[in-house]
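Tokens as discussed.
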């Protein structure tokens, strides 16, 4: 059975693990954001030239939205470039990953963990109110779905006589 033997530091192993997860796994927006945010923090650390550390390119490099040149070196810009995502995508991931633990649990329970716009909207709310804001969004979405279903039923039956 083929296998890959990794030799490196704990930090390098964690980077590799996250990269593999991002590359192979079907992740929700929340899961991807948490993984990207953690990886970006690891890449921003000193000695963050991971490609050189591994002796090859990261598996994620160039996957997804490519990053063009002309950006300043260091920090988030360099880390996002190494990951192969835009700086804006990295910032969105950090905002979503920064949601309160309670809000993350509510997002998963309500199915909003794969709704980037809902989670970004809630990220603007203070941490104490994030979970409740997600509950409200979920309730509104459920109401909207129910309203659309009712309208379809009414439309189907509106042309029929009621005798």
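Sequence:
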């Amino acid at each position: 059975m083929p296998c890959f033997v990794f030799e490196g530091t704990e930090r390098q192993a964690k980077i590799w693990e996250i990269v593999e997860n991002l590359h192979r796994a079907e992740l929700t927006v929340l899961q991807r954001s948490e993984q990207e945010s953690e990886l970006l923090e690891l890449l921003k650390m000193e000695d963050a030239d991971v490609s050189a550390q591994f002796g090859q390119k990261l598996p994620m490099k160039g996957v997804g939205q490519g990053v063009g040149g002309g950006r300043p070196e260091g920090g988030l810009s360099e880390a996002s470039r190494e990951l192969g995502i835009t700086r804006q995508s990295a910032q969105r991931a950090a905002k979503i990953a920064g949601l309160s633990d309670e809000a993350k649990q509510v997002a998963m329970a309500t199915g909003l963990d794969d709704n980037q716009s809902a989670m970004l909207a809630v990220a603007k709310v203070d941490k104490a109110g994030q979970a409740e804001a997600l509950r409200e969004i979920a309730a509104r979405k459920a109401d909207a779905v129910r309203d659309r279903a009712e309208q379809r039923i009414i439309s189907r039956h509106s042309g029929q006589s009621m005798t």
